[in-house]
Design brief:
Elements lengths: L9 H13 L8 H13 L3 H4 L7 E4 L2 E7 L6 E6 L1 H13 L13 H15 L7 H14 L4 H8 L4 H8 L2 H11 L5
Antiparallel strand pairs: 1-2, 2-3
Helix pairs in contact: 1-2, 1-5, 2-6, 6-7, 7-8
Length: 187
C-alpha cells in the first residue's frame, strides 16, 4: 500500500524537533539530525541536498548570503537567498561543531535521519511522516504566509507548473472547502 507523505502541522513540527532534541526512553537525543530537519523546514531543500551542504556552499553576495548548489534529484542549479537568520544558525552550528568550510555540515545518511524520525513519530503517534514532510511544511507555510501565492512556492521549489505545486502542497482541496463554506446566499 502506498502511503502518502503528509505535510506537518506547526504543532507536529515543534513536537518532532523537541522530541528529537531531548530523546525519550529507548531513543537517544540527536540534536544534529534535528538541525538537519530544521534546515529542511526553513529552506525547503530536500534532505539529500541538505546532507551534502558545506559551509562554503553559502556565499556572501554583498549584503546578503546565497546558496549555490546543484539539486541531487532534479540536477538543476539552485541559487537563492539564504535568510540572515538561517545563515546565522548554520554558522553557529558549524562553529560549535568545528566544521570547516569544505566539510559536510551533517555527517549522517538520509536513511539514518528517516529511521530516527520514524522512531520519534512512532513515539508521538504520528503516521505517514517522512523527511519530505519537512519540505512540504516549508512549502505550505510559505504559501499560507504569502497570501496563497502558488507561483512563489512553485519558483522556490523549482516545480515545472503551478498545478504540480498545488498538488504537492495539497492546499487546493482545502481552498475548495473554504470557498464552499464562505459561499452562503440562503437568504
Amino acid at each position: 500500500m502506498n502511503k502518502k507523505t503528509l505535510t506537518l502541522t506547526v504543532g507536529q513540527y515543534q513536537d518532532i524537533i523537541d522530541t528529537m532534541k531531548t530523546g525519550f526512553s529507548g531513543c537517544r537525543a540527536n540534536k544534529d539530525m534535528a538541525m538537519a530537519l530544521i534546515v529542511e523546514a526553513n529552506m525547503g531543500l530536500r534532505i539529500g541536498d541538505i546532507l551534502k551542504l558545506k559551509p562554503s556552499d553559502i556565499i556572501q553576495d554583498g549584503e546578503r548570503y546565497r546558496l549555490n548548489i546543484r539539486e541531487e534529484k532534479s540536477k538543476k542549479e539552485r541559487f537563492f537567498t539564504v535568510p540572515l537568520v538561517a545563515y546565522q544558525h548554520l554558522k553557529i552550528y558549524c562553529l560549535e561543531n568545528n566544521i570547516q568550510a569544505d566539510e559536510k555540515i551533517f555527517k549522517f545518511t538520509a536513511r539514518g535521519v528517516q529511521n530516527k524520525l520514524k522512531l520519534v513519530c512512532d513515539y508521538l503517534g504520528y503516521e505517514n511522516i517522512s523527511t519530505h514532510s519537512f519540505r512540504k511544511f516549508f512549502a505550505t507555510q510559505i504559501y499560507i504566509d504569502n497570501n496563497y501565492n502558488v507561483a512563489l512556492v512553485q519558483q522556490l521549489l523549482q516545480h515545472s507548473t503551478p498545478a504540480v505545486t498545488q498538488k504537492y502542497i495539497g492546499i487546493q482541496p482545502q481552498q475548495i472547502e473554504d470557498a464552499l463554506k464562505k459561499h452562503n446566499y440562503w437568504k
